Amino acid sequence: GAVVSQHPSRVICKSGTSVKIECRSLDFQATTMFWYRQFPKKSLMLMATSNEGSKATYEQGVEKDKFLINHASLTLSTLTVTSAHPEDSSFYICSAGTSGSFYNEQFFGPGTRLTVL
Amino acid sequence: DAKTTQPPSMDCAEGRAANLPCNHSTISGNEYVYWYRQIHSQGPQYIIHGLKNNETNEMASLIITEDRKSSTLILPHATLRDTAVYYCIVRVAGGADGLTFGKGTHLIIQP
User: Fold this and answer.
1) Looking at the complex, does the CB of residue A50 fall below 8 Å from at least one CB of chain B?
2) pLDDT confidence of residue B18
3) Inter-chain contact B41–A49, Cβ cutoff 8 Å?
4) Contact: A34, B94; criterion CB under 8 Å
5) What is the b/e burial string over A4-18, where b = at least 16 CB atoms within 10 angstroms of the residue's CB?
6) pLDDT confidence of residue A103
7) Which residues of B touch A43 (CB under 8 A)?
């Protein structure tokens, strides 16, 4: 399957700072990328959908001004958690979809563990 | 997307076949059944998908009932590395929406 990477894999930051997480599709062009977060012992929850060159679409309850998403190219999307607080501590996972496949399978990155002190 | 129901947990002995059930009684005619798994602290991994015919790949087999209201994922020879949470998801093929994950089944392979 296609490979999706995330960077960093783990980050610890102080409350009030901003953190940027990168998601890259390594061997295919991703017209759509998705951002999920997962709290301990919970399922993944979709946060937003980003399409290359356009504004992201956020799920209900997700603050667009707090979670800034940029999808500047077909291989890179970034999620910036602004003014992070301890309740933002979570496992953030991206996935990338390819419109070239009829099934539009999604391939997931390895995740980024964010801890806000 | 249709809702799915899975048992919260299952045990299976190493080397035996693991059979994971999923109910999706409200599935629509154009919705496929997808299976993903998530090993602890990793991103989900695609396993297999199907519409109405049984499917097999190098990882698993997918058996879908004739009425399509339920399916079973089969790992033919489970290993310790197959311990993970398995998610059954139904969705329209080619859909541009993100995936809706339920609670999944925590499969524990016992040595």
Assistant:
1) no
2) 98
3) no
4) no
5) bebeeeebebeeeee
6) 56
7) 87, 101-104
